[in-house]
Specification:
two-stranded antiparallel sheet; alpha+beta; 2 domains
Amino acid sequence: MADNFQLSTEQLIERRAQELADERARQEKSVEQKLSSGKVFQRFNKSQDIQQNIKENVTTALWSDSQTTLTTFYTSSTQTDIQKKYYYSVYQSQSADTNAEKQMDITWGHKLGSGSEDGGDNNATYNASAVIYKQYAQLLLDSGEDTFTFKNNVTSNNCYFISVDRARFKDRIDPGNWELTLAELSGSDFANNVHTGSNVVISGSILHTLIDDSGDTNQSVVNVTDAGLVYNIVSGSINNGAFSSDTTGYGLFYPDHGVIVLNGDELDTNMGFNSVTGSNINGDNSYKLFTSISGSAVIDSTKAFQGRSSEDVTSTYYYVRARNADFNFSTNPSFTTGSLGEFRYSSFIGNPKTYITTVGLYNDRSELLAIAKTSKPIVKTFDNEVLIKVKLDF
């Protein structure tokens, strides 16, 4: 009797499970039938309709107003004299202009504190130039290093720095897609200790264009540091690549930080910068770099500072499928007429038409999360099917 009772219980369980399964199937079929007749919502099939974590690299113009070339340069009238001993902020229009946005900061540093006034306690390590140099060294150099080393293992205590504003370059400045043009400077009428930024002008019309060497096919090693990728800065142009006849290393480029480090010794030798490196004197060397960059735009307005930003974008694609039997009716008042809801146009009888203009993405609580618009209305009838791909970027 016990065995028969146990067997009967198992049969009851199986029967009940089958009843529940049948009921669930009937419910799903009923829902499917309702949704296929004037449906408003359609649930995504996650395995077929959603494609997640699609990564792609997107480049955009580096400067404000979607400009790839910066040709106008203004310093800020609100910067104090104390601030200018450390850096100059550069804008694309005058600070009084409501559209003025900071594009970059320009500064100069010396490892030993030369070329700037005493920072206190007669200790050059507190001078502005020393503070600047060491700050960038801590940011960009590997642990234990304190001196910038350029191409061909050349070191320099004398460096100019360009920091592109964070809002400009997104994830990074796009390697191989920027070009900095510098004009040669002249201040030969002044001794070095008074060869300060305000006493320097551009010399003639000689220009030097600099790029990174990421596109150099002869470069066998890509340098990766604690600060990320780093490239040498060499003579060249975006269009023609590195100038093979010039092997000089003018600086280092850190794309992830938006920083360009220029070897001041090379700028002194090749471009007439004559950086002031005397003791306890404000050489205002930062302004020389500003004069060189802005002067290049005066000589050739098509050059100056070109660049693009680079950003890694993660996307999710939603494939919205409107099959032939779906979404052929509308609740829009223009679709019907009269109290009985008759078709406004007799031609709709047996062959209704709708026009898809908008796709809404909802969560399980029927809350609208995103809206996608089609470029033009898409006709929908029983005779055609529509597939719309919606892309969400994160």
